[in-house]
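Annotated sample (chain length 278).
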Amino acid sequence: MSGTGTIHPCCLTVAGSDSGGNAGVQADLRAFHAYGLHGCTVFAALTAQNPFGVSAIHQVPADFVAAQLDAVLGVYAIAALKTGMLADAASIDVIADRFAVHPEIAKVIDPVMVATSGAKLVSEETVASIRERLLPLATVITPNIPEAEVLSGMRITCRADVREAAKRLHGKYGCAVLVKGGHAVGDLAAAEDTLYDGAEFSAVTMPWIDNPVSTHGTGCSLAAAIAAELALGRALKVAVEGAKGYVHQAIATSCLVGRDCGVLGFAHKNLNHRPFVV
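Output written by the structure step:
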């Protein structure tokens, strides 16, 4: 059956699963749906996890990652995509090959490599593949501070360092850079993200939420929300502002769904709350 109605934009997530539904592909789909967008998925890994940790990971073979990409790219009206944790260099190669032939799709690359605690999450080979294959294809990358340190090759201890790292990354990869604050560093306020688009810096922040029920999946949710905003035709700075507001609402409405088990809340109830931008 052929349709003649309006074609609505879609979003794509290329990431790992979260069996607890807090992060990964599941968080991404929640964000896409909150924006009223259809979400397509490519699973790069399967995990057994909950808010207390990951107990098992099953790597999806690179040829099956490729098959998933081939099934959706060029078929669905994908206006924007985001990537999450990609732990295998072979998969990154097939992902980059497919992304390269779709320059019309806005690409939000979340270079998941280092936890906010500083713990390394992927191998050096994978880090090299992310640098060489994925980042040059990005519209915007969203590293946290430890990841920005790895990618820029410099130590970050203050706001000036964040800006210098963002400039270096833009110069090297030619994309916009959003360095996620996460925790206060020097004179950088907690929850202050820094956007550099190659021309100007913007500090995007929201009021700090004390003792939230859950913050698990906020990085995934932020990248997915940026992709959703871009898919809806919003300019990058506006998209980042809206995504920051989405995540703030999700944290503010986080709730318990089991004993000591929290999840992000339902930010879709009000997507008009925008953050402070300076």
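Annotation: The longest strand covers residues 38-50.
Annotation: The mean pLDDT is 90.
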